Amino acid sequence: MECNQVVLSGDLIECDPLRYTPAGIAVTEFKLRHASEQLEAGKMRQVECDISAVALAEVARAIAKLDPDSRLKLRGFLAKKSRMSTHLVLHVNHFELIG
Question: Is residue 81 within 8 Å of 88, Cβ to Cβ?
């Protein structure tokens, strides 16, 4: 199996209402705003980006209850938004609130 793991922290800036798949699985889509300093080519670089993410089941239910601007650390993997899409989305398997 090839590696596809992402750990990212940031602020919750948008969260769609909780919905359910036809199979009854809870789903929520949301956006995280990340800002950090990263080392690149021997120099520190400011990194800022908004990341689209999706969570399912218990993780979706928990994220849907959070207040906007909650600070989170997310763990998951990258995948296309849909079968026909080229846009990547972070699929979140685990999260924790950060102080």
Answer: yes
Amino acid making up residue 58: E
Instruction: Convert 24-41 to b/e letters by CB count within 10 Å (16 or more is b).
Output: eebbbbbbbeeeeeeeee
State the average pLDDT over residues 22-41.
97
- State pTM to two decimals: 0.91
What is the three-class DSSP state of 98? coil
50 has which bridge partners? 33
Helices marked H in the chain — which ranges? 57-64
How far apart CA 83 and CA 88 sit, in angstroms, is 11
The token pair at 33 is 């705003």
Q: Coil, helix or strand for 7? A: strand
Using a 10 angstrom Cβ sphere, with 0-12 exposed, 13-18 middle and 19 or more buried, the burial of residue 69 is exposed
